[in-house]
Inverse folding.
């Protein structure tokens, strides 16, 4: 049965989304609209996840079936010099949601990141592999995971990586903007020694909603299938957009940034696959679908 058929079989639920104006939040809203599910969209202006009293009031008044926490501080380089912000949003925020969800008997889907790993493993990371974050962002996301596990038994922790969607910013929007500013005679240098799996927000949204309809609680990896490098992804983006310029591979050392990145961000969706719940497509196909739907807006 296709994904739409599976969605039709699921109970129509009331979903509360934090971070609803972000790229994953918007993809969730679009998918929920297609399915006709009831949705409560929240963002910082109406629900500050770092305020435990506000979280309790909002969830106890709204009483959703499932909370999807897509709120996060994700400017990883800026967070290196602002660890308090990372801890408030990425650690305390999930804890506050988890406490409220436990007290109210709600399911919680919490989004985490490949940055909880150090990137030293030669092959894809599986859910039970040892963590070892390299950055402030990664450490704050790992602590958020730990508090969700401690405080809310009915949880799904979903790690993803290399996420792109609308409105951005993300790698896709950055590559397109840079290429257009350089013009056909320019040269674009892109890192070639970091591996991962580009993951479309619409594909991830469908996967999260499939999990929401189950009680298969636990920690999962959810990325599109396969792997590439940032250089390989950039080449596909520019080819799809019919933008011609010279693209040159470079190393991470040639492009230093404040926050260290995992050299290997490839996540294996092992537990989704074992449970028969993996809906994630190949990364190339997901990007082509994304471009067909949204390319004229990028």
């Amino acid at each position: 049965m296709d994904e739409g058929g599976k969605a039709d079989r699921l109970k129509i639920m009331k979903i509360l989304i934090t971070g609803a104006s972000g790229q994953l939040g918007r993809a969730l809203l679009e998918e929920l609209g297609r399915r006709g599910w009831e949705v409560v969209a929240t963002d910082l202006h109406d629900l500050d996840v770092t305020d435990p009293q506000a979280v309790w009031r909002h969830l106890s008044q709204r009483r959703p079936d499932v909370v999807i926490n897509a709120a996060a501080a994700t400017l990883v380089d800026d967070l290196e010099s602002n660890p308090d912000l990372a801890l408030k949003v990425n650690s305390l925020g999930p804890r506050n949601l988890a406490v409220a969800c436990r007290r109210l008997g709600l399911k919680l889907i919490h989004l985490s990141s490949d940055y909880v790993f150090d990137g030293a493993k030669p092959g894809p990371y599986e859910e039970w592999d040892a963590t070892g974050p390299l950055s402030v962002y990664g450490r704050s996301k790992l602590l958020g995971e730990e508090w969700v596990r401690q405080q809310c038994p009915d949880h799904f922790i979903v790690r993803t990586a290399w996420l792109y969607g609308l409105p951005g910013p993300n790698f896709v929007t950055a590559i397109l903007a840079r290429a257009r500013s350089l013009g056909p005679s320019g040269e674009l240098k892109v890192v070639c020694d970091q591996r991962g799996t580009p993951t479309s927000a619409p594909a991830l949204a469908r996967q999260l909603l499939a999990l929401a309809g189950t009680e298969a609680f636990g920690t999962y990896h959810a990325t599109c299938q396969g792997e590439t490098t940032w250089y390989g992804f950039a080449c596909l983006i520019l080819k799809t957009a019919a933008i011609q310029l010279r693209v040159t591979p470079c190393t991470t050392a040639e492009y230093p940034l404040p926050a260290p990145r995992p050299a290997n961000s490839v996540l294996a969706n092992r537990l989704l696959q074992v449970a028969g719940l993996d809906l994630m497509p190949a990364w190339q196909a997901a990007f082509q679908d994304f471009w067909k739907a949204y390319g004229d807006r990028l």
Observations:
- The first strand starts at residue 14 and ends at 18.
- The two ends are 32 Å apart (CA to CA).
